[in-house]
Amino acid sequence: MTAIAKAVMPVAGLGTRFLSVTKAVPKEMLPVLNKPLVQYAVEEAFAAGIEQILFVNGRGKNALEDFFDHAPELEARLAESGKTALLSRIESTVPAGGQFAFVRQTKPLGFGHAVLCAKNWVQNEPFAILLPDDLMMCDQPCIKQLADQYDLSMGNMAAVVDVAPHAVSAYGVLDIASQKGDLLQTKGVVEKPTTEQAPSTKAIIGRYILHPDIFKVLETQQPGVGGEIQLTDALSRMIPTHGLTGLLVHGHRFDCGSVEGMVEAQVAYGLRDPLMGEKIRASLMRWL
Ligand code: UTP
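That is the input. Now the predicted structure with uridine 5'-triphosphate docked in place:
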């Protein structure tokens, strides 16, 4: 096992599926119940033993940096009025000095390009990637499931779920060479295939552990689907030298990059909430 200390969170996308709200609010700051998506991802990373996080941020997304900073006026007001539980809740989002770093992707040239922006910060060690808009409801943190299996000799590793055949066109889909338990060795990966083109229904979701050699490959990666620099294309080029292991992860993934997935997440987290669950269940019955 190789210890994973660093995680990268690319959050510079335009979030067009959530317009109009994403005109002014970063997608990653949208809440499920009372916590923004990015906080769920940070908690998942820390629960997996990750020590440092780099956010690849874009223009107009300062709310993310502010969220992880102190809010002196608000904190003073909560302290004065004795609202200690709320005070500790907002203080708990502020990391220890130096734990978080931010870098700008000055143009949204694609997810692969956002990862390349992390090159100087990551340097020469394997690192995790978490996309906060994939919200994972798991008994064991999703990125920990990967980290527990990862060995540097594996090269690149991606979390995988089984999707319906009609849904494959939204994902990078694995062409599987062999399977051992939950580990899938791949001979190829196809970005956003049609149902007919898809080599399987095993789809990559937004959790990875990557070999630092990915950066050399991304430096020469040409734009792919949608005119964007795709991480999947770089992973595909590395298969002959580094391999690509898919891990079928245990738990449920909510696609909170889509309105439908976000609504599903709100309902699921709401129903499971110990304080509000019963009330929400009763209210929802009215609409069924
Ligand atoms: P998406 O494919 O979900 O794109 O990006 P998007 O722009 O966020 O959303 P839509 O499709 O327009 O609604 C996957 C992840 O990669 C990041 C996004 O922030 C998201 O976490 N990303 C994407 C970047 O950081 N930079 C990019 O240029 C593109």
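The radius of gyration is 19 Å.
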